[in-house]
Write a sequence for this structure.
């Protein structure tokens, strides 16, 4: 019996935009420096600096947008200590926070090695159930009483339409680059798609999966709590009508024209990078579209600034989801463009009077 150990850190990503006056501090980490030309230090060493020093040094070295560095908004003279512990910042910026929990060690049965050296029961099971287009991971779960799932990698030459089903324990699946895959019946598993149009069907009893669909026009149909990174492509995420009550669906839409279809008001969803110019949230035919509404909620009371809000979605007055605006630079540029705001008001003229345009509201 062969097992593979996987060390995974539970991680949640929160992407927000913030606006106002702040003091920026913290550490920029440790850098490795090599100096082979120095006879006294041929192997180099390490350099640690504060975030404030890193920003100050970048500005002094004339780094700019061409280097993907923007130091505008920082007051370089707000602190002169050595090292600088903080810098004052005034303006609008995008922030990403990774919230880590615990390191978790998973063991899965190594399907490749167990196939090379199978037990007699595994050989008979494989002969009885082998299907070139469908992979049932329970066929590789040689010891079903150990509550250990299966690690499975499709051969790199695998192509065509494939389907794969989980064991019910924690499985880890990697697809090939050439096939189109359909995933079903996985629980607390790690599923990796490819650059094609993959489908993930996860019912009420199949919660807790981490899905990385990568590129392609993928589809996710979920009735229970899931964490999904849809990647690039025009993806569709459907919250099914039979969703488990109070299940939480965490969605990172990625690039593309993505769509979230809500067929149940019992579940809750969070979108971490919503682009209202490209992405769509809508209800399915199971719900009444008239009762579906969205509202801008500012992070700071009294500040009517578009890049300082989240979008709350409601059904019949009750909250069903939250979308945080994307931090993509192109989206931010469009968002702060006054012409964008005038177009929004013009396209929704029946709901707005002339007052907002005359006031000159901006992002």
């Amino acid at each position: 019996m062969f097992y593979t150990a996987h060390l995974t850190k539970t991680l949640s990503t929160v992407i927000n935009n913030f606006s106002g006056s702040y003091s920026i501090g913290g550490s920029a980490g440790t850098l490795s420096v090599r100096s082979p030309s120095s006879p006294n230090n041929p192997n180099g060493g390490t350099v640690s600096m504060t975030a404030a020093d890193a920003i100050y040094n970048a500005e002094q070295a004339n780094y700019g947008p061409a280097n993907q560095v923007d130091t505008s908004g920082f007051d370089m003279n707000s602190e002169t200590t050595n090292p600088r512990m903080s810098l004052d910042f005034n303006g609008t910026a995008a922030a990403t926070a990774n919230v880590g929990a615990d390191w978790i060690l998973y063991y899965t049965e190594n399907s490749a090695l167990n196939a090379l050296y199978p037990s007699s029961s595994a050989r008979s099971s494989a002969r009885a159930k082998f299907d070139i287009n469908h992979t049932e991971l329970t066929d590789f779960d040689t010891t079903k009483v150990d509550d250990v799932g299966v690690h499975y990698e499709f051969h790199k030459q695998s192509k065509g339409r494939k389907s794969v089903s989980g064991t019910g324990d924690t499985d880890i699946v990697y697809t090939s680059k050439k096939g189109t895959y359909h995933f079903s019946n996985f629980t607390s598993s790690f599923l990796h798609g490819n650059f094609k149009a993959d489908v993930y069907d996860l019912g009420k009893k199949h919660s807790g999966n981490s899905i990385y669909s990568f590129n392609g026009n993928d589809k996710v149909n979920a009735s229970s709590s899931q964490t999904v990174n849809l990647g690039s492509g025009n993806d569709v995420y459907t919250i099914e009508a039979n969703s488990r009550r109070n299940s939480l669906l965490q969605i990172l839409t990625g690039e593309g024209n993505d769509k979230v279809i809500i067929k149940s008001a019992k579940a809750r969803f969070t979108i971490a990078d919503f682009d209202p110019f490209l992405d769509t949230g809508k209800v399915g035919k199971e719900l009444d579209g008239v009762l579906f509404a969205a509202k801008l909620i500012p992070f700071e009371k009294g500040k009517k600034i578009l890049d300082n809000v989240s979008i709350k979605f409601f059904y019949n007055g009750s909250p069903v989801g939250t979308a945080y605006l994307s931090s993509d630079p192109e989206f931010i540029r469009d968002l702060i463009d006054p012409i964008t705001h005038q177009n929004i008001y013009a396209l929704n003229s029946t709901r707005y009077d002339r007052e907002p345009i005359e006031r000159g509201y901006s992002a």
